[in-house]
Write a sequence for this structure.
C-alpha cells in the first residue's frame, strides 16, 4: 500500500470512526462435487453471522464444484479462489507445492488437521439387500457387481480403494493379502466412472451393479431423493476409512483481494456449533462432540482407519497406490 | 508493360498477415505450447510414456472406434444426404434441421442420454441384452456415441455437392444404357468422393478427440474401454502435465499423419 493510499484509508476510517467501515466482499469457495448443498446452506448462515458484527458489509459467496483434482488444478492455473474445500489433503498439497499460493504446512493452521467435518465410505445396495451384502468380504462373492469410480480421476474413489485395502490388510494380515483382496474386488467392478457423481448415476439411474461404494453423505442423499428410500439400503461395513475433506485459505489470492480476515473467519465458523449442525444436517459427520452426540443415531459407529495413521498421509499413499505404476495400475496390468 | 489484376479483397500482404496472426493465436501457439511442455522430457521418458501398454491399448481403441464411426457415418450420412436432396416429403425441412442437433447439444448430455438408453436395463439396451451382447460400457457403445457426435459432417459436406449434380446427367447416362450401378459408379461417385472424403476426415478427427459424450458410455476399464483423452485427464489429475502433453503430442502426430494421407488421396482423385 502506498503512503498516499494509506493516508487516505486512515482519513476515511477516521471519518467513519465508531461505525466501522462498510466493505464489499466477494468470496469464491472452490469445492468438490458433493458439497453443493452443504455450502449453499452454510453460506447463508455465515453471511448472517458475519453481518451480526459487521452490520454494513455486503458479502457475496460464490461456489464452484467439480472433481477434486480438477478443481485443484484450476486453482493452480489461476482460478482466484479465496478458500478451497476439497475432497483430500493431497489436492491442497499440490496447490501449495505447484501453485505456491499457500504455505506447505497449511494443514496445521486449523483444528483437527483442517477438517471441520468428516465422512466415511459405506455401501449402497438395492432395497432388501438381495445379494446379502454385509461386509467387504461379501463384495468378492460370485455374481456381485460393484460400482466405484476410477481412483485415478476421483478423490472419493481413492478413499474407497484405501478402505478396501484396510479391510484386506486386517482380514489377510499382510500387504500381499491386501493386494490380493483389492485385485479380486476390482475384478467385480464392470464400470469405472470418472467421478463420484458419475458412479451414483450409473448405479441409481442406469441400474447397474449390486453395490455402490459411496461417500456416506452421497448415500444418504440418494436415499433422500424421491423414492430413494424405497429402492436402496445403506449397509455399514465393519471397517472403513475416516474420509477427511480439508479446508484452507488460499493466502495469495485472499491477500490480493483483501479477504484474508473474512476468509479465515469463514473457515473457522465451520467449527462453531451452528456450522457443525449444518454439516450434520447435510450428512457429514461433525467434529463437535455435542453436535455429534445429537446426531449419533444418524451415524452408526464403526472401526475407522485414518489416512495419516494407517497410510502415512497422502504424501505416501498417493505415489504408492495411485500414481502411474502404483498398486492400482499393477492390479490392472496383471489381468 | 503488364498490368496487375487487382484481386477482390485488396492487399495481399494485409490479408496474409492477418491469416498468419489469426492462425498463430488460435492454433499454432497453443499447439506449440504443448510441444514445449512435452519437450521438457528426455526422448527416453517420452518414449516410455507413449509406448506404455495402457496408452497403446487406448490408442488402438480411440482411433479404431473413431474410424468405425466415420465409416458408419460415411454410408448412413451419404444416404441421409441423398434422401434430403433428392426427395421432397412432408417434414423434410425438420429432418434437415435435426441433422445439426448433435453439434448444438452439449456432448455430456448426449453421453448421459445414450448411456441411459443403451445400458443392459435401458429402453434399447435390454433387447441387446436379450440377444446376449452389451452396447453401453463396451467399444460398441463408444462407437455409438461417436457416430452420434460426428453425424453432421458427412451429411453436410455431401449434401451441397449432390444438390449441384443435375438429375439430367443421371437420366442421360441411363438413356445411354448405363445400369443404375454404373450410374452410381461412374457418374455420382467420382463427383461426390472429394466431398465425401472431407466429411469422413472431419468426422474421424472429431471422433478421435471426443471426450464428453464417450466418458459416460465407455465404462473406462483400463486396457479395455479407456480412450486416449481419458488417459490425458488421468495424467492431469496426477498433476503430471508433461505426461499429459506427451499423449497429446502422440495424438496430434498420429492424427496429422492420417489427415495428411486423406488429403493426398483427395488430391489424387481430383487430378486424375
Amino acid at each position: 500500500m502506498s503512503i498516499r493510499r494509506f493516508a487516505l484509508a486512515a482519513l476515511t476510517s477516521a471519518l467513519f470512526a465508531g461505525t466501522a467501515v462498510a466493505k464489499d466482499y466477494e468470496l469464491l469457495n472452490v469445492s468438490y462435487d458433493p458439497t453443493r448443498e452443504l455450502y449453499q446452506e452454510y453460506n447463508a448462515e455465515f453471511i448472517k453471522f458475519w453481518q451480526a458484527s459487521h452490520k454494513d458489509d455486503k458479502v457475496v459467496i460464490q461456489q464452484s464444484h467439480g472433481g477434486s483434482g480438477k478443481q485443484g488444478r484450476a486453482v493452480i492455473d489461476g482460478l482466484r479462489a479465496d478458500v478451497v474445500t476439497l475432497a483430500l489433503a493431497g489436492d491442497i498439497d499440490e496447490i501449495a507445492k505447484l501453485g505456491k499460493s499457500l504455505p506447505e504446512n497449511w494443514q496445521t493452521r486449523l483444528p483437527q488437521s483442517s477438517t471441520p467435518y468428516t465422512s466415511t465410505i459405506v455401501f449402497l445396495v438395492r432395497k432388501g439387500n438381495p445379494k446379502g451384502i454385509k461386509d467387504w468380504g461379501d463384495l468378492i462373492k460370485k455374481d456381485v457387481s460393484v460400482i466405484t469410480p476410477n481412483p485415478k480421476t476421483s478423490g472419493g474413489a481413492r478413499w474407497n480403494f484405501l478402505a478396501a485395502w484396510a479391510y484386506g490388510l486386517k482380514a489377510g494380515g499382510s500387504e500381499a493379502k491386501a493386494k490380493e483382496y483389492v485385485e479380486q474386488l476390482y475384478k467385480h467392478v464392470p464400470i469405472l466412472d470418472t467421478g463420484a457423481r458419475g458412479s451414483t448415476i450409473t448405479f441409481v439411474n442406469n441400474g447397474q451393479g449390486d453395490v455402490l461404494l459411496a461417500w456416506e453423505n452421497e448415500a444418504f442423499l440418494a436415499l433422500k431423493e424421491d423414492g430413494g428410500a424405497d429402492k436402496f439400503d445403506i449397509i455399514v461395513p465393519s471397517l472403513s476409512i475416516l474420509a477427511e475433506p480439508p479446508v484452507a485459505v488460499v493466502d495469495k489470492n485472499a491477500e490480493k483481494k483483501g479477504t484474508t480476515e473474512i476468509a479465515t473467519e469463514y473457515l473457522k465458523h465451520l467449527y462453531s456449533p451452528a456450522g457443525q449442525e449444518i454439516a450434520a444436517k447435510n450428512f457429514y459427520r461433525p467434529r463437535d462432540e455435542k453436535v455429534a452426540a445429537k446426531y449419533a443415531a444418524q451415524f452408526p459407529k464403526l472401526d475407522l482407519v485414518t489416512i495419516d495413521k494407517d497410510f502415512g498421509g497422502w504424501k505416501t499413499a498417493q505415489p504408492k497406490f495411485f500414481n502411474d505404476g502404483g498398486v492400482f495400475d499393477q492390479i490392472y496390468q496383471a489381468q | 508493360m503488364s498490368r496487375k489484376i487487382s484481386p477482390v479483397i485488396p492487399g495481399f500482404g494485409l490479408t496474409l498477415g492477418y491469416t498468419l496472426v489469426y492462425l498463430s493465436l488460435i492454433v499454432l501457439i497453443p499447439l506449440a505450447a504443448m510441444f514445449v511442455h512435452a519437450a521438457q522430457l528426455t526422448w527416453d521418458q517420452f518414449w516410455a510414456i507413449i509406448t506404455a501398454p495402457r496408452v497403446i491399448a487406448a490408442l488402438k481403441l480411440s482411433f479404431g472406434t473413431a474410424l468405425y464411426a466415420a465409416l458408419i457415418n460415411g454410408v448412413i450420412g451419404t444416404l441421409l444426404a441423398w434422401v434430403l436432396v433428392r426427395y421432397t416429403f412432408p417434414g423434410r425441412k425438420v429432418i434437415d434441421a435435426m441433422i445439426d442437433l448433435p453439434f448444438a447439444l452439449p456432448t455430456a448430455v448426449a453421453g448421459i442420454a445414450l448411456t441411459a438408453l443403451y445400458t443392459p436395463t435401458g429402453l434399447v439396451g435390454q433387447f441387446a441384452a436379450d440377444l446376449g451382447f452389451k452396447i453401453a460400457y463396451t467399444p460398441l457403445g463408444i462407437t455409438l456415441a461417436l457416430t452420434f457426435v460426428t453425424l453432421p459432417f458427412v451429411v453436410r459436406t455431401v449434401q451441397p455437392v449432390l444438390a449441384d449434380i443435375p438429375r439430367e446427367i443421371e437420366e442421360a447416362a441411363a438413356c445411354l444404357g448405363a445400369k443404375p450401378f454404373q450410374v452410381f459408379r461412374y457418374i455420382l461417385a467420382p463427383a461426390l468422393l472429394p466431398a465425401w472424403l472431407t466429411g469422413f476426415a472431419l468426422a474421424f478427427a472429431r471422433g478421435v478427440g471426443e471426450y464428453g459424450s464417450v466418458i459416460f458410455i465407455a465404462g473406462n476399464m483400463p486396457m479395455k474401454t479407456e480412450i486416449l483423452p481419458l488417459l490425458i485427464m488421468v495424467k492431469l489429475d496426477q498433476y503430471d502435465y508433461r505426461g499429459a502433453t506427451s499423449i497429446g503430442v502422440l495424438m496430434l502426430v498420429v492424427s496429422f499423419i492420417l489427415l495428411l494421407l486423406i488429403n493426398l488421396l483427395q488430391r489424387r482423385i481430383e487430378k486424375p
